[in-house]
Amino acid sequence: MLNNSQMSDEQLVEAFQAGHLAAYDELVSRWQGKIRGAVWRVLGSTEDAADITQEAFLRAFRGLKAFKREAKFSSWIYQIALNLCRDSLRRKKGKTYVSLDEPEPKIPMLLSKGPSPLELTEGNQIADRVRLAIQKLSEDQREVIILKEYQGLTFAEIAETLGLPTSTVKTRLYRGLVEMKQHLVRDGVTSASPIPDRTAS
Amino acid sequence: MTANLSCEAMRDDVVALLYDDGDLAERSRARDHLAQCVPCRAEYAELKGVRKTLGGWNLPLAPPLPQARASARWFPIGLAAAAGLILGIGGVGVGRNAFLPASAEPRSVATDPATPTARSSSATKAQLVSYDELQDLLRTQESRHQAEIADLRRSFMQTAEASTSPGAAVKTASNASPATIERLLKASEERQARVFEARLAGLRTENDLQRQYDMAQIAAGLAYIDSRTGADAARTSELMKNLVRVTAKPQER
């Protein structure tokens, strides 16, 4: 008999649907970090990330009994969380910009064994500019870039999560990266290098 | 700059190669195309650079929530939903035959994904009750709450009456001796002073750490600017020397 931590997501969902509520605890501890990370990157706020992650898992709990196991649990929970993010961004639109520029915690970085102060200064500057450049992308591009670059999902998983064909996922990724490059050049993070004329080749 | 048609058609394949995802045929087609298309090769290199820069945005090292708040927020969702149902605030979609744990005490779970979550056995060992039993439990709890509210209301009314009647006030006051009241007050003051001292010490430590960190950042920033300025000055001086050498008349060389 497998214990919860040895079971796959699919087995845990099946166990939950059979009435073992503790199986859901395992799913939460397995996915809450990743979901919170994705939400944090989409919204740019730790406070909102915690609230929305909790709300996403509560909604998943309510719907898990009826969840058809055609999709992966991970895609489904990402989908719920991203929908909540979209709602949150829509609600906040035009109201506040504070959360997007929320400074990241400093003290724990000081106490941890890690990069030198110089590296921290440069690293923080780059991280801040990347963060702001990502916030400037359209919602569609931002989501695919976050899911691919930071969550490490495959094209197929992103397609399942967002309900899109994989070709659309790739197109959004391409356009998102090109736009990111322009923002990063404009912000002085990277330098522009002219791409040879295609008509000449 | 306009991409020609074949380059446009290759974009999906190039993205597949960029992320080493998708099927082998796509990546192979992309490699073939890049081998013969200079602009696409240049763009591919640029996009790889963008990906590298994106890697510089890490999650904060600390758990995003302060611990005290985190522990208050996070508890097993299953138990949370059951608690919500018991309190009458949760619209949890459970059927009539669904089973819920009888114990709905919230417990804290670490929010840091790196920290292994302490697996309490409370959920697995929780006593399971049927929907009907749960309804009984709710009714019992409701009547207990009503009785407690009635008791509180009664005691409040008695206190209010006592405070408005001078005779009763004297009687109440005489129940506790002045020495006892004084001792209790002193103990309370001492306790508050200790708590205040402890908080002050915590704040001082936190403040010192932040100041040290800020100083280190400023020093690092200044050192960085110094080194940049030094390098720029050396480069300018080198350029000036070259300029003088080049513009000098032949007989001066």
Structural commentary:
The complex is a heterodimer of chains A (201) and B (253). Chain A is mostly helical and 201 residues long. Chain A has helices spanning 9-17, 22-43, 46-63, 73-92, 107-111, 117-136, 139-150, 155-162, 166-186. In chain A, helix 1 (9-17) packs across helix 2 and helix 2 runs antiparallel to helix 3. Chain A starts with 8 loop residues before the first helix and ends in a 15-residue tail after the last helix. In chain B, strands 1-2 form a two-stranded antiparallel ribbon. Chains A and B meet through helix 2, helix 3, helix 5, helix 6 and helix 7 of A and helix 2, helix 4, helix 6, strand 1 and helix 10 of B.
Structural class of chain A, by secondary structure, is mainly alpha
What is the end-to-end distance of chain B? 48 Å
Oligomer: heterodimer
The largest chain-to-chain contact, stated as pair and per-chain residue counts, equals:
A-B, 77 and 75 residues
Envelope shape of chain B:
flat
Q: Can you write the helix and strand succession of chain B as a string?
A: HHHHHHEHEHHH
- What's the end-to-end separation of chain A, in Å? 63 Å
The portion of residues assigned to helices of chain A is 55-70%
Structure summary, number of beta strands of chain B? 2
Unreliable segments of 5+ consecutive residues of chain B: 62-127
Overall radius of gyration of chain B: 37 Å
**Number of E strands of chain A:** 0
Model regions low in confidence, pLDDT < 50 over at least 5 residues of chain A: 96-113
The overall average pLDDT of chain A, rounded, is 83
Largest sheet of chain A: none
